[in-house]
Amino acid sequence: MRLNILFRKWTLFAAAACAALLILAPASASAHAYVVSSQPAANETLDTSPATFEIEFNEPIEAGFHKLEVIGPNGNIVNDGGAGIDPRQPSRLTASLQPNLPEGLYTAKWNVVSGDGHAISGTIPFQIGRGDTNNGLPIHPTTDSGNSFPGWSLVLVRWLFYGGMAGYLGTVVFHAWLLPRLDNAWPERLKRRSRAVLLAGLIAASAGILLSLPQQTANDAGGGWREAFDPELWRQTLVYTTFGEIWKIQLLLLGGWLLWTVFLLRTSRITRPRLLSLAGGLVFGLGLLLSKAFIGHAATAELPGLAITMDFLHLAASLIWLGGVGALAFLLPVATLPAAEDKAHPSGTPQLPLTWRTVRRFSLLAFLMVAILMVSGVYGSLLHVPTLYSFTHTAYGRVLILKIALTLICLLLGAWSFLRGRRAGKPLSAAGVWTEFGTGLVVLVLAAVLANLPTASASPGPATLTKQLDDGTTVMIRIAPNALGTNTFQVSVDGPEGHPRTDVEQVTLQLTSKEMDMGTTEIIFPGSSPTEVRELITMGGRWNVHVHILTKSLNSYDYDTELSVGTP
Fold first, then answer.
1. How far apart are CA 108 and CA 102, in angstroms?
2. 3-class DSSP state for residue 142?
3. N or C: which end of the chain has fewer CB within 10 A?
């Protein structure tokens, strides 16, 4: 009965929290840096040779691994020295150019590392003189922000860390909470298995942390693993990138974690006074998980503190839950109390077998972890997937759908085990527990993929902004492709009966960025027909759209709405 009450309370709590998050939806995060403007501008035709080339990004870029080369008509690099970041404006990358450049077509090729630790690159074309056409140039600057799936090494290194942490945290929680009693009576097989899982988890997670330095260096340098062990490139990573700063903190935490684990395993006894040792291992492990959140998508959100906290809670809850399942599958079968302990409590009241007392404790823990997963997962989805279109039309959204589906399978398997646990006479299904654990390991692979993909905010898809006015008039604004660059805008104004209004003199849209001062872009639609207007959107992210409708009788309607623009 008590378990049912707790289950209902946690279910209601999770449902209420998810509803609150849906109402108080967070502003979406673009994650990767993107180009705001350049001098010369993309496709600009200049009468004279420029002295410098500058690129302005939407956020500060890392001081290491930046590159800017301007290639002339004959294929030669026309930089006059190397590129650098403006110390007064860390979001600006500049390069001096050779004087008196000849007429022709030029292409600026750039590579930078954005604030979330991901390497991005692109090209910006421009022209000097008017003698050539730009038929060979793209209409807009191109950007490669990592829209393809990450390489196997990125996923493997992250998965090693996740899997190792799950095994370690699960074993700690198993001994600190799930087992009903801690004394000297545990079988030797349980002690050996526990040590083996702790050591395997420590080794795997440590490998994930240590290998992340050369792997990140290879990724930022753009040369693959042949660049991964260059000492000079390591220096750039450690000194000039946020990843390097966090990695040094992770190394300190890893050292403390290793020493604490050695202390934990010094003796074969696992008794209640040693709960402090178990708690120490848990604290170091959670500290490492928290550090990961500072170099991921959450770090570039509009409210980074809240986003980082939610990212940490989501990861910690999932790994503790999965580690607990693994402990039930691998450790519980060899944790058999003496027969006398299974028969009766000291009060004389018959006890449930050890297996079901442990499973019921895990059920309480699982309810708490699932509640945290639901709350933080809904928040993360609202943060990184701004539209239903982006949920189904981006790599990030499709991988997230698969991750959610497999997580639901784990939940169903766990619920089935819980329902069986209410009837202690039935044996624990080893196949079900191992299936749940194996499915969880696949979920961790997908989590590693998501950590290295640009979020769905980069491609929210065509937008339709609909507003019903007080008199029943419906205004519909369509924007395609709704991305950085030239977009097609359409406006239709329908009366209460659903037919187009013929008394509209003019519709005016005024777009202003909600993230930085980009000025105002004004788009004018004459008359009531749903004409198309092509206009340039100079920056991705959130834009305020002020709509002004003027009728032939000089009546007017005004309202504001928000547009989320992609950053390809």
1. 16
2. strand
3. N
